[in-house]
Amino acid sequence: MISTALTDLWYGFGVALEPHNLMWCFIGVLVGNMVGVLPGMGPLATISILLPLTFAIKPVGAILMLAGVMYGAQYGGAICSILLNLPCHPPHAVTCLDGFPLTKQGRGGVALGITVLASFVGASWGITEMIFLSPLLVRAALEFGPAEVCSLMLLGLLAGSTLARGSPLKGVAMTVLGLILGSVGTDLEFGSERYTFGLAELDDGIALVALALGLFGIAEFMNSINQVAPINTRYTNVSLRDMRPTRADLKRSIFPMLRGTLVGSLCSLIPGTGPTIASFVAYATEKKISKTPERFGTGMLEGVACPEASTHSSVQGDFIPTMSLGIPGDAVMALLLGALMIQGIVPGPQLISQHPDIFWGLVASFWIGNILLVLLNVPLIGIWVKMLAIPYRYLYPSALFFVCIGVYAANNDMFQVGEVVVIGAFGYLLLRLGFHPAPVLLGFVLGPRFEENFRRAMLISRGDLGVFVERPISAAFIAVCLLLIGTQIYFRLRGAKTPVAMVENAPVQLAE
Amino acid sequence: MASLDSALRALIRKRDFYAGGLMLIIGCGVALKGLSYRSGTLMHMGPGFLPTALGAILALLGVAIAIAGTSAESAESDERILPEHPQWWGWLCILAGPVLFIVCGRYFGMIPGTFACVFIAALGDRTATLKSSFVLAVVVTIFGVALFSYFLQIPMPILTWKVGS
Predict the structure, then answer these.
(1) Which domain holds residue A181?
(2) Which of A65, A126, A282, A309 is deepest in the core (most CB within 10 A)?
(3) ipTM summary value
């Protein structure tokens, strides 16, 4: 088994190193890193904006580029948290705790260097996991009938919605809303129109790009306009020489990195825990086993290395269900999956065997991309630091133009630009009402496939809903679903804070 | 009576009450519209089956959110629906940008569309002046047209005149 995995990986490197694919991977990493550094632009907004540009590329190049954008944006987010104390992306919130004090002490460069290294270690482990676990999962998943696929999707949807910030009830509501939005357009089986209100442009459903850019682009701009605090760039003078950690620094952070990686990969295996929780758990663990826990928060390298490694290993772990089962773990993964679907590729367990170039190319490109990032970040850190100083008032109008032209270019259709405006305004309303729109995307992407499998399962069982609990594998998934709901209710009744709620409150502590 | 009145008023000020209400309205709307599509049986589901069911679930979730928000003393600090300093002008500018892009882009081409979109959107910032917005719009237009029209070959005329045609 190991030898087949290695042969496949070798093949993957062949795909990823083809000049074209290598170029797209490089462009993705570079642009993702660049946009991710900009304060107020998280990976979701970055991927959404760049998504339309990938439609003209072949599927392999497109997915390599988008994945590159994603981890590039994550590196960028880490730079933002360490140098500016701005957690642009929730998983990096804990990195601020020790990263920014280090910056104040003039050791921000070392913190960045350690971050780059920790991310690489974490990601490498995550990739290794992906290589060996995905084929196993696929072998199991190929046996699944529609009932099992349905229950699995249900689990994925539930896990994704409780993962979101805010109340779990609201998260589930957003997922259901996403499922409903996914049913807009022509029905797959009967060809009848649903919720199109007579608009021929809606026959093909709501465009994924329009939905993503409305929710994570326009709604976010509306949320941030005139609210962004002036950026303090006093500490951001970091040069290449500052980034090199000393031997003592390395010695201090190597074990936290490994522990963080372990925590991250464990968290990615539990449904309902993603990178954000992984980073918080990692930080808490590191603090607990440290000999000097009281010094955390004053600029400990361990407090940077551990959560960063954990985040990256967890994110890579999230790719496993996304690519091998077609069940995305969070909104970023849903976007990547949506991009594949736009390219005409059906996600699911058959993906690896039908499109080995995509899967193994992606796996190999993770490594190549991560190495590219290390190489890029070292010489370009000066430029990134300068980009941090771009004021928001120049940023959002330019980004808005990219949103418009991107949505237009996706289908050469002005109607979809109109969709963005409507979805953006509605998305802002949702934000103000305390909803977090990320699960909408999850429901939207999974919706049509959920309906198809549900229909098929019902047809096979002759309309008997009991099939979901009678078949053992499906019953196990349903049991995990109930367990998830049960723990949420338990935490609620006890009045204790759920892990997600703890994460919610953490930025408040940061501000103090 | 007075206590009931004040209780009612306190209830209506709760953000979650509106959040739940919105979900209830959307859910009911979706479910009612779904009923007009053929729903079929469980074994042979019609196009209306799942949307109707989802609408009903969303409506129930809406009720649950509203109840959870009003009964429990929620710890959420931000109960306002509007932020502390509503940015009506900024919001208007952000939404007007893409609308102008659609209108100008359709009738006059990419250059006027881009310029109008960026110029109006930039005016939404409190510190923006006509001059700063103008400069930004010019710069973005030059880069944007070069990138999208010449480099990425987006099939959108850069300058045209389609009024009345």
Answers:
(1) 2-511
(2) A309
(3) 0.88
